[in-house]
Design goal:
The structure is a single chain. The chain is of the alpha+beta class and 274 residues long. The protein is 49% helix and 21% strand. The chain has 11 helices and 10 strands. A 3-stranded antiparallel beta sheet has the order 1-2-5. A 3-stranded antiparallel beta sheet has the order 6-7-10, with helices on one face. The protein has a two-stranded antiparallel ribbon with strand order 3-4. α1 crosses α2, α2 packs across α3 and α9 packs across α10.
Length: 274
């Protein structure tokens, strides 16, 4: 029987993030074999994951990361079951580490298969499910490229956004952050009118017509009036047309042009918990 020292337990804890007692038990069961102990902890994670597969994981941490030259960004959510775990410092650090890795990949599938300290991201999530005792998974994964990309993470890591601008001009960093904050706060459904899908438009037009009928408007007038109401819908629900939250006298588009006359918003991504 191998002698298990406190240093051994701490080493395994550093590698896996598991609790001290779990690490000691795994080492004892593996007779001091670190590789076997790690494998045992992962198997425990698989069992916990199977038992909790039907649980809702609506808490966690939303993280936005931008590369060094500000031309690419990613937003992810690392989801768990409880707010208590989601606020844990080590959980948030794991989410940040995973987001930094996610920058290198274009799809969620590629990211989940990527190497994370000797195991795949998917295996790491299963391992952490065993460590924490809750369902742990990647929820959102959104990538964005542009001439200049900025980010914003709302307090408490509940919402994260990235925004792309058409050029890297003086003031671009502040402008991108402000527009990313707008996207976090106002939750637009699209960048502009062209990004709203046809089904949504048709549904909103029918809702508008129904309301007009209830007001007693003639059927012949419904089409024209409802199209006018759609302009209000686009103003409220598309990012560049929304009133700028820091100055309601201008739209987001006009705010960006106040930074540089030729500057535009070319894209955004938003990830939120819940």
């Amino acid at each position: 029987m191998a002698t298990i020292t406190a240093a051994d337990v701490n080493k395994l804890r550093t590698i896996t993030g598991a609790g001290m007692m779990d690490c000691k038990k795994a080492l004892v069961e593996a007779d001091g074999d670190f590789d076997l102990a790690i494998e045992n902890l992962r198997k425990k994670g698989q069992k916990v994951a199977a038992n909790r597969s039907d649980r809702e994981s609506t808490e966690g941490a939303a993280i936005a990361v931008v590369n060094a030259d500000k031309t690419e960004g990613v937003v992810i959510t690392l989801n768990c079951e409880t707010d208590f775990v989601g606020k844990n410092e080590s959980f948030v650090k794991l989410a940040q580490d995973l987001a930094n890795l996610a920058l290198k990949y274009n799809t969620k599938e590629e990211f989940l298969a990527a190497d994370f300290n000797g195991i795949t991201v998917s295996e790491k999530l299963i391992e952490q499910t065993g460590v924490i005792g809750e369902k742990i998974e990647i929820g959102s994964f959104e990538k964005l490229s542009g001439a200049f990309v900025g980010s914003y993470i709302h307090a408490g890591n509940k919402i994260a956004t990235i925004v792309a601008l058409s050029a890297n001009v003086d003031g671009a960093e502040e402008a991108a952050r402000n527009v990313a904050m707008q996207a976090a706060a106002m939750n637009p459904i699209a960048l502009d009118e062209s990004g709203v899908d046809a089904d949504t438009i048709a549904k909103e037009i029918e809702i508008a017509k129904d309301l007009l009928r209830q007001e007693g408007k003639p059927e012949a007038m419904l089409e024209g009036i409802s199209k006018g109401k759609m302009q209000r819908f686009f103003k409220d629900n598309t990012l560049v047309n929304q009133d700028y939250i820091k100055d309601g006298s201008m739209s987001v588009s006009n705010y960006v042009k106040s930074v540089d006359a030729n500057l535009t918003v070319t894209g955004f991504k938003r990830a939120a918990l819940g």
